[in-house]
Amino acid sequence: MNPERSERIEIPVLPLRDVVVYPHMVIPLFVGREKSIHSLEAAMDHDKQVMLVAQKEASTDEPGVNDLFSVGTVASVIQMLKLPDGTVKVLVEGLRRARISSLTDNGEYFLAQAEYLPSLAVETAKESKKSKKGYSETEAKERASEQLDEKEQEVLYRTIVNQFESYIKLNKKIPPEVLTSLHSIEQDQLDKLADTIASHMPLKLADKQRVLEMANIVERIEFLMAMMESETELLQVEKRIRNRVKKQMEKSQREYYLNEQMKAIQKELGEMDDAPDEYESLKRKIEEAKMPKEAHEKAEAELQKLKMMSPMSAEATVVRSYIDWMVQVPWHARSKVKKDLVKAQEVLDTDHYGLERVKERILEYLAVQSRVSKIKGPILCLVGPPGVGKTSLGQSIAKATGREYIRMALGGVRDEAEIRGHRRTYIGSMPGKLIQKMAKVGVKNPLFLLDEIDKMSSDMRGDPASALLEVLDPEQNVAFNDHYLEVDYDLSDVMFVATSNSMNIPAPLLDRMEVIRLSGYTEDEKLNIAKQHLLSKQIQRNALKKVN
Q1: Which residues are CB-neighbours of 161 under 8 A, at least 6 positions away?
Q2: What are residue 30's DSSP bridge partners?
Q3: Residue 450: φ, ψ to 5°
Q4: Contact yes or no for 110/58 (Cβ under 8 A)
Q5: Widest CA span in the chain
Q6: What tens digit of pLDDT does each residue of 104-153 get?
Q7: Residue 238 and residue 170: Cα distance in Å, rounded?
Q8: Which residues on adjacent β-strands are paired with residue 497?
Q9: Separation of alpha carbons 381 and 402, rounded Å
Q10: CA distances to 139, 300, 421 from 152, in Å
Q11: Which end is more exposed in the chain, N or C (fewer Cβ atoms within 10 Å of the end residue's Cβ)?
Q12: Three-state SS at 210
C-alpha cells in the first residue's frame, strides 16, 4: 500500500488536557486517570501506538465520547514508567495526524476507528507526476492544489524561519537552541517545519487544535505567520513598556545617587552639621503623637517606605505629607473642661441679652455633660433667622466650658470629600476639613460649630449630609474614617453644635440633633442690646470719646 494513502486503523485513545501533540514532537506526559492508564497498557500490549486527542474542556475530569476533538495524533510510546503514587510517566513521539470516524468506550478505555490524514510533505513537480497515479481523482485534485515548485518552497521556508527568528529574539522564554533544530529541517519538509514552530508558540488550545486540523500546508504556515505577527506586536509593546519602566528606575536611582553625593559634599563643607536627620525627626514625632496602635503601625509603615525612596521623588513628597498630617492630628491632647455652671451662666449673660429660655436649655445641657465623661447626648442645633446670635452662642458655650472653639461653615458645601477627605491616589489630596481643623486646634475635645448646616447640597461628587451622619452619631463617631488618613479617628470627645436658618435639614441628620429655636428680638431687647453691646463697640471702632 502507498504510505501516502489514507489507512483505517483501530487504536486506543489517550485524552489530554490543555495539550496538543503534533507529529515529530517528543514529549513527556504524566498520566493519572484510570482509563488513560488502561489505554497506555493496551498500546504497550500491541504495537506501542496510541492516539493522543485533546479534550474540548480541560476542566472535565471524566471525559465522554463527545468531549474529545475529532482530530488527533497517532504517537509511538518510547518509554513508560509507573511511579510509586500510582501515576504513570510516559515518553511519546508524534507520528501522524489522524481523524476519528467512530469512538467507543469499552469500559476500560476509549477505542477509536480512525484514518490517517494524507501526509503533507511537499513534492516537486517532477515527483508529483510519478505519485499521482496512486490516488483517486478527488485525492489527486486535492494534492495538486498543495504542490509547490522549489522556488515557492524556498520562499515559504525562508519567510517563516526569518519571522520565527525575529519572534524568538523578543520572546526570551523560547530557548535559542530551537533555532538550531529548525535549521536542521530540510527545505522540502515544510510540514515538519510548521509543526515544530507551532509546538513552541504560546497558542490557545483552540488555535493549537486548529493548526493540527489544517490539511493544507500553505494555509497552516500562513496561519502561524499571522499568529507570530500578532504575538510580535504584543511583545514589542511589552518591551517598550519594560524599557520605559527601566529608564524611570534608572532616573530615580541616578537622582538618589546624586542626592546622596550632594549630602556628602555638604557634610564635608559643614553645611549639614546642624541639620536634623529627617527620618529620626519624623520617627520622634510619631512616638510623641501617642497614636492608637492601628495609626501608629500605619505611620511606621509609611516611614519605612519613605526611608527607601529617593528624597526628591514625587512619591516621597506624598508620603512625607501624609506622615506630617498623621503627627499633626491630636490623638491624645485634651483641654481641661470647666464644669462651673455659675460661671457658665455669667458668660452667657455677659455675651447675650435676653434669650432666657435658650440659655436655660443650654445650661441644662452643660449640667448633664459635667456629670459624664463622654458626650453621648444629642447634638444641639440652634435654629433661627440671621442675626439672632446663633454663631456667637456657640462661641459663648466654648468660652463657658473652657473648650477650644472651631467653626466650620457648611454653606455651599456639596462635595463629600470636604467632610471625609480625598484618597491619596489623587494628586494634591488632603484630609477633610474636619480633620484639618482638628489638627489646627491641636486638642481632641474642642467645641465644633457646624455653621449653616441647612445650606449643604449634593451633586455627582456625593452627599456631604450623609457623610455628616457618621460624624454626629455618638455610636459611630468613635471610629470616624477619613479617606486620606485611612485609619479610624475618635471624635467622641468633640462637642458638636450646629446652627441653621430653617428646618430644611435632611431627616436622618435632624434625628441626631436637639433643636433649640431662637426667635427674633423685641424692640425693648433690641434697645438694651444696642446700649449694652453695640454702642460701646461703635464708639471704640470710630475712635470717639464716651460722654455720660
Answers
A1: 182, 183, 193
A2: 89
A3: -95, 95
A4: no
A5: 138
A6: 988 889 999 999 988 554 443 334 444 444 444 445 434 444 566 778 88
A7: 10
A8: 380, 449
A9: 20
A10: 22, 69, 69
A11: C
A12: helix
Which of the following CATH numbers is that of domain 120-273: 1.20.120.140, 3.30.70.20, 1.20.58.1480, 1.10.260.40?
1.20.58.1480
Written as nine digits, the cell of 502 is 430653617
Extents of the domains making up the chain: 8-119, 120-273, 278-328, 341-517
486-539, pLDDT tens digit by residue?
999 999 888 899 999 888 888 888 888 888 888 766 666 667 767 776 777 777
d(CA 221, CA 163) in angstroms, rounded, equals: 11
The answer to whether the beta carbons of residues 527 and 535 sit under 8 Å apart is: no
Grid cell in block for residue 131: 505519485
CA distances from 335 to 286, 441, 447, 481, 494 (A): 21, 10, 11, 23, 11
Residue whose entry in the numeric block shows the C-alpha cell 447675650: 352
Q: What was the pLDDT predicted at 376?
A: 66
Q: DSSP label at 501?
A: S
> pLDDT below 50 — which residues of the chain?
1-5, 121-138, 140-145, 272-275
Q: How far apart are the first and last CA of the chain?
A: 138
Separation of alpha carbons 63 and 92, rounded Å: 21
Spatial separation of the C-alpha atoms in residues 132 and 148, rounded to whole Å: 14
pTM for the model: 0.49
Which CATH architecture is the domain 8-119 placed in? Roll (2.30)
How many Å apart are CA 381 and CA 515, to the nearest integer?
A: 5
341-517 topology per CATH: Rossmann fold (3.40.50)
Distance between CA 212 and CA 120 in Å, rounded?
A: 12
